[in-house]
């Protein structure tokens, strides 16, 4: 498992390019958005197998209790989505699909999934955030030294969302991952170092850098406008099977950043060295943060000063491939977990009760489900 996961994360091949998409208009009616995927349901992003260009999207309908796979293909065939769907996010009537190994962001209508265009020419894009209808941001890892596999500084691409073109790039830390907007600032987690870069969204200039523990990757905002950061620590790998050494690694942590002062208000450090916290996901009210640690799902009350002591969802001490994605449905609070059977065959989405953590049901989706957009 570790060998495959590390290869997918750190050994990115050249972007797979194909023709640009035609710009079309959104189909809206006065009584709300029209389209098959505007109805009561959940869109699922499926990474696909690296270098295979078989990333896909699935749609689960609450009304019919059925799942439709290959939804993008159904609407846009013969157009392929691309290679490794890293991140999916909706802003307004558009859906932005970050295609990591294809080096682009595919843009579709959020309600019909009809392709509207693409942001091309990106290098290993990771995550996307829209400031408004006019401007968005994409993190990029850039290249690595092929003899050492060591990365240099990455960047944030500033995108004109009207023309879908990059207007500027901002150099940040090593391997920038998730990014989040708050109070006119863009916060970027630099996973290859120990910092969160803060960018002024009016000037698109860096204002400051906040030091956190090593390996920050996942971000979430709570109801108090505190920014939570999960850091994985420094991991030492066995070169034979890529297992993580408990003895030689450093522990992960959760940090709380005051976005008013851009200072670290608290750091909660885990007692184990090998596992890493990831996939921070707030509930609708912002009073709880869900995350994955040691193949389990934990719930952190945002006002407590210590880490949770018992997981909400416990699937045992070892679960092959663990959780590949995590989402919390607004309203119901239902927890959605994407499970990658492996990175070559179709995975599963398992739904869990937010009260007991018990599995409610599951359905089969595409390869390596990693994200959710709730309709």
Descriptive tags:
disordered N terminus; 375 residues; mainly beta; 2 helices; four-stranded antiparallel beta sheet
Question: Could you characterize the architecture of this molecule?
Answer:
With 375 residues, the protein is mainly β. It has helices at 2-10, 71-76; strands spanning 28-29, 32-33, 41-46, 56-61, 66-68, 85-91, 94-99, 104-109, 115-119, 125-130, 135-140, 144-145, 150-151, 153-160, 165-174, 176-182, 185-190, 195-200, 205-211, 216-221, 226-231, 253-258, 263-269, 278-282, 288-293, 296-301, 313-314, 323-328, 335-339, 346-352, 359-367, 369-374. The strands form nine sheets. It has a four-stranded antiparallel beta sheet with strand order 5-4-3-32. The longest helix is centred in the first third of the chain and has 9 residues, at 2-10. It is globular. 43% of the residues are buried. The model is unreliable at 1-30 (pLDDT under 50).
Provide the fold topology.
Layout: H1 2-10, E1 28-29, E2 32-33, E3 41-46, E4 56-61, E5 66-68, H2 71-76, E6 85-91, E7 94-99, E8 104-109, E9 115-119, E10 125-130, E11 135-140, E12 144-145, E13 150-151, E14 153-160, E15 165-174, E16 176-182, E17 185-190, E18 195-200, E19 205-211, E20 216-221, E21 226-231, E22 253-258, E23 263-269, E24 278-282, E25 288-293, E26 296-301, E27 313-314, E28 323-328, E29 335-339, E30 346-352, E31 359-367, E32 369-374
Antiparallel strand pairs: 1-2, 3-4, 3-32, 4-5, 6-7, 7-8, 8-9, 10-11, 11-14, 12-13, 14-15, 16-17, 17-18, 18-19, 20-21, 21-22, 22-23, 24-25, 25-26, 26-27, 28-29, 29-30, 30-31
């Amino acid at each position: 498992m570790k060998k495959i996961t590390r290869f997918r994360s750190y050994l990115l091949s050249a972007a797979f390019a194909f023709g640009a998409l035609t710009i079309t208009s959104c189909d809206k009616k006065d009584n709300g958005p029209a389209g098959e995927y505007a109805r009561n349901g959940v869109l699922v992003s499926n990474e696909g197998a690296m270098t295979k260009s078989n990333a896909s999207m699935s749609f689960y309908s609450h009304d019919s209790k059925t799942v439709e796979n290959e939804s993008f293909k159904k609407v846009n065939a013969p157009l392929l989505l691309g290679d490794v769907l890293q991140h999916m996010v909706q802003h307004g009537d558009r859906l932005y699909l970050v295609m990591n190994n294809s080096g682009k962001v595919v843009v579709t209508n959020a309600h019909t999934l009809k392709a509207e265009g693409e942001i091309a020419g990106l290098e290993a894009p990771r995550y996307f955030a829209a400031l408004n209808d006019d401007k968005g941001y994409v993190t990029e890892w850039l290249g690595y030294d092929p003899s050492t596999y060591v990365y240099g500084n990455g960047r944030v691409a500033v995108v004109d969302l009207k023309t879908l073109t990059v207007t500027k790039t901002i150099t940040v830390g090593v391997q920038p991952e998730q990014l989040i907007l708050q109070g006119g600032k863009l916060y970027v987690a630099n996973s290859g170092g120990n910092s969160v870069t803060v960018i002024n969204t009016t000037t698109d200039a860096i204002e400051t850098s906040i030091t956190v523990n090593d390996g920050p990757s996942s971000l979430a905002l709570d109801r108090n406008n505190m920014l939570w950061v999960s850091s994985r620590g420094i991991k030492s790998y066995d070169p034979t099977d890529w297992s993580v050494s408990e003895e030689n690694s450093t522990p992960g942590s959760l940090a709380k950043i005051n976005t008013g002062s851009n200072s670290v208000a608290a750091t909660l450090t885990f007692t184990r060295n090998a596992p890493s916290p990831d996939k921070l996901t707030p509930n609708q009210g912002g009073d709880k943060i869900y995350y994955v640690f040691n193949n389990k799902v934990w719930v952190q009350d945002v006002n407590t000063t210590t880490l949770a002591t018992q997981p909400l969802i416990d699937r045992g001490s070892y679960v092959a491939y663990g959780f590949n994605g995590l989402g919390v449905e607004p309203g119901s609070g239902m927890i959605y977990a994407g499970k990658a059977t492996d990175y070559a065959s179709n995975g599963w989405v398992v739904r869990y009760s937010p009260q007991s953590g018990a599995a409610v049901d599951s359905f089969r989706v595409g390869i390596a489900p990693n994200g959710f957009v709730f309709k």
